[in-house]
User: Which sequence fits this backbone?
């Protein structure tokens, strides 16, 4: 009888094989789990990057159409007034003037504004154009009287029985003094100011001085703003501010900003989301890469219409329009930029044959 304890060589080899098989299966399972984990991390990272890129666009879309206290999205009538001249620093009307009959947001299917000559824009992607004010500064009532006679340095001056904004002071809150394009706004009106003579804009101590007339009268080839009043103005006599149009109490000055977002191919032939914006030189900045691997930017608009029912009552109707619908001549959406109530923006990216997408609806 064999009373020896332990495994035989055969038993040991069998046990070793079983153990090795189990360890291999565990390693394979762990490896697959780890690969899935890494893939999920990459997916999460790319989705997060796409979300952050959308957040950058969203911040600018929310600001579109806003200049100080004036907001195109809340105006029932077109109160936009242009007082401008050609400026050697900003001669391109696409960059330096507000898009006509709009609310500060528009888009196109091709590079109509010549926004980039160094990148190749992708096909089947929209170009988003946003316009808004930056670095707003408020009007300061420096002088004792609001209105005064010809030749004095008051806020409003009389010239040939007409009244004009004359000598304006603003708090120095970061306004770009090198710019040649500004928006002067009140709650009821906004004015585009393009200067060919930078002497119109000066710094007086810690205040920003805007001179709009020459001895109280409009300058030749320079912006001017006529002031309307609900009561007859008397020289050297203060009257209520709310008697003026534009509303003096809400006047502010801001830099005029035009920003574009578009998808293009970079030097490495990879597509990405880019941004350019108007600089104080009157030209667009160099393209800034917001996010790589983006292959498409699409914009749809929600338009509001007011119609009458059979009883003559007013009813609101809404329509979703793509960029191509807005540009088509035979569409109900055609050139409906002034009816835009909200924008639905989609970003699509592709990395390692995996497609990512995020969509945001933005209203004002």
Assistant:
């Amino acid at each position: 009888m064999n009373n020896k304890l332990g495994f035989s060589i055969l038993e040991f080899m069998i046990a070793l094989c079983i153990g090795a098989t189990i360890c291999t299966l565990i390693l394979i399972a762990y490896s697959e789990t780890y690969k899935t984990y890494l893939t999920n991390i990459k997916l999460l990272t790319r989705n997060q990057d796409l979300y952050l890129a959308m957040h950058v666009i969203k911040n600018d879309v929310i600001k579109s159409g806003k200049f100080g206290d004036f907001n195109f999205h809340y105006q029932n009538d077109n109160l936009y007034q242009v007082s401008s001249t050609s400026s050697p620093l900003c001669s391109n009307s696409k960059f330096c003037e507000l898009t006509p009959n709009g609310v500060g947001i528009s888009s196109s299917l091709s590079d109509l504004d010549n926004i980039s000559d160094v990148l190749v824009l992708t096909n089947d992607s929209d170009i988003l154009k946003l316009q808004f004010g930056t670095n707003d500064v408020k009007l300061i009532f420096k002088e004792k009287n609001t209105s005064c006679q010809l030749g004095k340095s008051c806020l409003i001056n009389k010239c040939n029985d007409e009244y004009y904004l004359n000598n304006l002071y603003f708090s120095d809150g970061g306004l770009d003094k090198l710019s040649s394009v500004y928006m002067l706004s009140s709650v009821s009106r906004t004015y585009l100011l393009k200067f060919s003579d930078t002497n119109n804009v000066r710094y007086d101590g810690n205040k920003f001085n805007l001179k709009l007339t020459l001895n109280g009268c409009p300058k030749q080839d320079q912006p001017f703003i006529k002031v309307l009043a609900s009561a007859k103005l008397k020289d050297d006599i203060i009257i209520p501010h709310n008697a003026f149009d534009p509303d003096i109490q809400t006047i502010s000055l801001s830099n005029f900003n035009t920003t574009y977002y578009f998808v293009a191919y970079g030097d490495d032939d990879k597509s990405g989301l880019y941004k350019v914006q108007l600089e104080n030189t009157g030209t667009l900045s160099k393209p800034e890469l917001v996010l790589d691997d983006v292959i498409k930017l699409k914009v749809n608009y929600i338009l509001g219409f007011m119609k009458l029912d059979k009883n003559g009552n007013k009813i609101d109707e809404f329509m979703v329009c793509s960029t191509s619908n807005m540009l088509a001549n035979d569409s109900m959406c055609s050139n409906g930029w002034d009816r835009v109530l909200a924008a639905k923006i989609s970003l699509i990216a592709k990395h390692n044959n995996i497609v990512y997408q995020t969509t945001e609806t933005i209203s004002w």
